[in-house]
Structures are given as C-alpha cells and as structure tokens.
Amino acid sequence: MKKFLLSRGRFPTIANNLAQKDLLKKFKKCSEIVHIHETVQIHDHQNISIEDNVVIQVGVVMQPGRKRKITIDKNTSLGPYTVVMGHVIIGKFNMIGPHVVFTGGTHRITNLKKSMRSGGSSFKGGIVLEDDVFIGANATILDGVKIGRGAVVGAGSVVTKNVDSYSIVAGVPAKKIKDRRGLSVIEGE
Ligand SMILES: CC(C)(COP(=O)(O)OP(=O)(O)OC[C@H]1O[C@@H](n2cnc3c(N)ncnc32)[C@H](O)[C@@H]1OP(=O)(O)O)[C@@H](O)C(=O)NCCC(=O)NCCS
Question: What separation in Å is there between the alpha carbon of 25 and the centre of ligand 1?
C-alpha cells in the first residue's frame, strides 16, 4: 500500500487526512514522498505523474486535459500560483518560480467558420524541460518548446523557441542574453 510522507515544516501540506490520501491515489503515478499544498487545483489526475521530493506550492493549477500528460520528475519545485496546462514533461532538479505559465497546447485559431471557442485545439507537441532548469517568476512557456539542461529563463520572459542547454534567455520573446558556461565562479559560492 502507498505511504505518503506529507510535508512537515517548511511547506504547508496537502491535508493530512484519509480523504486527501485517497485523492492522491487517483494520479497516474504519485511518489510516496511529495509536498503538495492543500490549495493546489488538479484536473485529470489520471494523466499526471509526480516523482519523489516534488514540491508543489500554494495555488498551483495542473490541467493536462484528457488526451495529454503532465510529468514532474524528482526534486523539482513549482512556485506559488504556477499554471501547468496541456502536455508538459518536467525533468529533475528544476526550480519553477512563482506565476509561471506552461501552455502545452492552445486553441485552434485558423478556422474562421467556427468560433474559436468551438474550433478545437492546436498542438505542437507540448513542452519539455530537461534537468536543472531555473524558470524565473512570471515567465510563460509556449507549446512546442524544449528547454535544455541547465538553462535559465529570466523573470517575465515569453519563451517561443527552444532554449539551448546552459543558456540564459530573457525578454519577450525570450532571447539568449548569456551562457552559463562562460560565467566565472566566485570563490565560496
Ligand atoms: C535572467 C537572470 C537570471 C539574469 O541575471 P544576470 O545574469 O545577473 O543578468 P544581468 O542583470 O547581468 O542582465 C544582463 C542583461 O539582460 C537583461 N535582463 C536580465 N534579466 C532580464 C529579464 N528577466 N527580462 C529582460 N531582460 C533581462 C538586463 O537588463 C541586462 O541587459 P543590458 O545588458 O542591456 O543592460 C535574472 O535577471 C532573472 O530574471 N532572474 C529571475 C529572478 C526570479 O524570477 N526569481 C524568482 C525566485 S523564486
């Protein structure tokens, strides 16, 4: 039987009661060690996998939809009020800041004969974050984007294209401003 080690201490937790534990069982997969704030809104649990030591902070919304999936790998944290929609695969040791939006799919806008509301969806393959990525506050990541290992996305960026490993991108649309491999290491850091 699954045993959930619910967070004690640093992060407020999903309520420590049987009803919440039953809720966790609805996921496609959920680790035994997760930290999920009780205000988190989750839709389509059956399409969501969450691995060990994932931290999901206050007000996060996760909504893969019926045909897509969300995967969050080990030791990754989602900051307050982040929204994860559509097909989004998030690797290990990632830090996602507050109010980040992942739009792993969108509305179809090409059919003028129908309202966009009834025109269906458009999909470019979803979003992939490799490992050790840092996404700054208020960034938006669009469908079809892959963010490489060790990359940094600046606060407030709108990421429309793939981001190379170890790049630092910022702005709207996000452009490369630095490469982490060129930065000097300060003693003691
Ligand atoms: C992207 C980031 C890491 C870059 O930090 P840095 O390496 O110290 O960058 P610098 O301050 O040297 O800025 C380099 C250039 O990029 C620009 N820049 C930096 N961050 C930017 C951003 N988020 N959006 C647009 N431009 C940005 C700077 O204005 C500067 O431009 P200039 O050369 O024309 O003067 C940082 O600015 C950032 O956005 N951090 C995220 C903070 C955050 O959201 N924290 C949440 C914690 S949970």
Answer: 40
Q: Confirm whether 99 is a catalytic residue.
A: no
Ligand 1, atom 38, lies closest to the CA of 154
Confidence of residue 137 (pLDDT cuts 50, 70, 90): very high
For the whole model, what pTM was predicted? 0.91
Strand order in the sheet with 77-78: 5-6, 33-36, 54-56, 77-78, 95-96, 134-135, 152-153, 167-170, 175-179
Beta bridge partners of 103: 85, 142
Whole-number Å distance between alpha carbons of 56 and 123: 26
Number of other residues whose CB lies within 10 A of the CB of residue 139 = 24
Residue nearest (by alpha carbon) to ligand 1 atom 15: 177
Cα torsion 24, 31, 12, 157: sign: negative
Indicate which atom in ligand 1 lies nearest the CA of residue 183: 7
152 lines ligand 1 (CB under 6 A): yes
pLDDT digit string, tens, across residues 28-80 = 988 767 888 878 888 999 999 999 899 999 899 999 998 999 999 999 999 99
Ligand 1 in contact with 168 (CB < 6 A)? yes
**DSSP for residue 163:** B
